């Protein structure tokens, strides 16, 4: 055949989907005009609507391709499978390969679990061990397994801190705010430092510092913004603070809000009906109750039936506020706005005693139920919507902390640590 008849046809580069190496492209360029040469080796054949997606080859990976998340499946179907893996096994998923690790480290994976209702709520308890020089540690409870698991140490600036605040933003970020600086010794000043833990990345991160140093203050979350108010500066001047500030994670900065009606050191607070209720001690050690409204950015003194006799831990669920009616939290009461009074709503009739170990340290909402967390690390859940006096609605999610073995208990007694107890400082729920 004549050599002129073997000349390559003109190729339209807008529809070219083939792969050409550099030598072939150079040879073709000598026969075809430069404007029509097929020199697009970066285009992938898998984008053609009539061709099946080719499996990655070593050459593809060297040129920017990568292996699929699950062999034989498109990535979208692979992700649909991976998001259904229980949260307890996510630490193992990160060890499979780099692509799985990057997938679980991003917000897309957990955001998809949350939108599809697959996110799991775990209970985190920040506690102080009186038997280890008052060190601060934290444990996590998986409700499906019913056992507490110790977590790596908290940041060292909070390992010995006291009077710090704790809150959850975005459902998966646990913030530690302010507190007494342990590096300044006894009676040291307060901190402005803020750190947060991400349940998605399983890591601690720094956040912008507060505008004021404070300890023993009140903290809450409204509209996914963190509010802090009152407390002490720790400078030794005495008295409480009137200042209040808010942290907006979208802007990543703190800003002042209206000052409190009176300086105070809060000991209990709760968000109810779009307002933040705070109760504590004033400058003259008198009991003061105030409420903050973010809509009007104003504080007001509260004297209604809600704050009367309200000193125990509380939580909101279904638009109502609940609080413990006894020391061990076996009996709960709810606030009735119409009657402006507290009424008994649940009673397990299984009193644990009045010791510090059996004391109800926190009440949190978990999967539509109220959970009472005691200092002995026992957790009971009650379905308040099941009706008053229904004992079947109470369920034990976690028993008391495991008893020490005989040898461990004997050594602890000889060392003078036989009465070591945990004291829960904060208890919150993170979702991932």
Explain briefly what this protein structure is.
The chain has helices spanning 22-31, 58-62, 75-82, 90-93, 98-105, 107-115, 406-414; strands spanning 121-129, 135-142, 147-150, 165-169, 173-177, 194-198, 203-207, 218-222, 225-229, 244-248, 253-256, 265-272, 275-281, 287-293, 298-301, 314-317, 320-324, 331-336, 341-347, 360-366, 369-374, 379-382, 394-398, 422-431. It is built from 7 helices and 24 strands.
Number of helices in the DSSP assignment = 7
Helix content: 10-25%
CATH topology of the domain at 154-311: Neuraminidase
Averaged pLDDT, please? 81
Q: What CATH architecture of the domain at 154-311 do you see?
A: 6 Propeller
Q: Largest sheet, described in full? A: 4 strands, antiparallel
CATH H-level homologous superfamily name of the domain at 154-311: Kelch-type beta propeller
Instruction: Tell me the strand order in the biggest sheet.
Output: 3-2-1-24
Low-pLDDT segments, ≥5 res: 1-56, 58-64, 402-420
Q: How much strand content do the residues show?
A: 25-35%
In terms of structural class, how would the helical and strand content be classed? mainly beta
- Give the overall form: globular
CATH class of the domain at 154-311: Mainly Beta
Quaternary form: single chain
Number of strands: 24
The radius of gyration computed from the alpha-carbon positions, rounded to a whole number of angstroms, is 30 Å
Domain F-box: 71-109
Keywords: Kelch repeat, Repeat
InterPro entries: F-box-like_dom_sf, F-box_dom, Kelch-typ_b-propeller, Kelch_1
Pfam family, one: F-box
């Amino acid at each position: 055949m004549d050599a002129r008849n073997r000349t390559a046809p003109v190729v339209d580069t807008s529809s070219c989907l083939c792969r050409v190496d550099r030598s072939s492209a150079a040879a073709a360029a000598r026969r075809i005009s430069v404007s029509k040469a097929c020199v697009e080796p970066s285009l992938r054949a898998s984008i053609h609507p009539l061709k099946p997606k080719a499996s990655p080859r070593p050459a593809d990976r060297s040129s920017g391709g990568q292996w699929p998340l699950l062999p034989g499946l498109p990535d979208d179907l692979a992700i649909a499978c991976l998001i259904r893996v229980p949260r307890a096994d996510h630490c193992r998923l990160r060890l499979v390969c780099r692509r799985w690790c990057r997938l679980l480290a991003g917000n897309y994976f957990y955001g998809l679990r949350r939108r599809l209702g697959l996110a799991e709520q775990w209970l985190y308890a920040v506690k102080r061990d009186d038997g280890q020089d008052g060190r601060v540690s934290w444990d996590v409870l998986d409700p499906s397994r019913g056992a507490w698991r110790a977590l790596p140490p908290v940041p060292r600036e909070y390992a010995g801190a006291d009077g710090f605040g704790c809150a959850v933003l975005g459902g998966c970020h646990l913030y530690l705010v302010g507190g007494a600086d342990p590096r300044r010794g006894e009676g040291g000043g307060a901190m402005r430092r803020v750190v947060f833990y991400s349940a998605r990345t399983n890591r601690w991160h720094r956040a912008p510092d507060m505008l004021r140093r404070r300890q023993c203050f009140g903290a809450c979350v409204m509209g996914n913004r963190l509010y802090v108010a009152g407390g002490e500066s720790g400078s030794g001047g005495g008295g409480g603070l009137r200042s209040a500030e808010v942290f907006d994670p979208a802007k990543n900065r703190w800003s002042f809000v209206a000052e409190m009606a009176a300086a105070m050191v809060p000991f209990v607070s709760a968000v109810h009906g779009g307002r933040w209720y705070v109760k504590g001690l004033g400058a003259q050690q008198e009991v003061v109750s105030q409420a903050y409204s973010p809509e009007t950015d104003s504080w007001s003194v509260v004297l209604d039936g809600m704050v009367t006799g309200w000193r125990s831990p509380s939580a909101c669920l279904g638009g109502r506020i609940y609080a413990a009616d006894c020391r061990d939290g076996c009996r709960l009461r709810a606030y009735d706005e119409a009657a402006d009074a507290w009424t008994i709503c649940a009673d397990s009739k299984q009193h644990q005693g009045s010791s510090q170990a059996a004391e109800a340290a926190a009440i949190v909402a978990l999967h539509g139920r109220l959970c009472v967390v005691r200092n002995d690390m026992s957790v009971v859940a009650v379905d308040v919507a099941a009706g008053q006096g229904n004992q079947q609605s109470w369920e034990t999610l976690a028993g008391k902390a495991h008893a020490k073995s005989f040898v461990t208990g004997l050594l602890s007694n000889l060392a003078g640590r036989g009465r070591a107890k945990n004291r829960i400082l904060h208890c919150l729920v993170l979702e991932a």
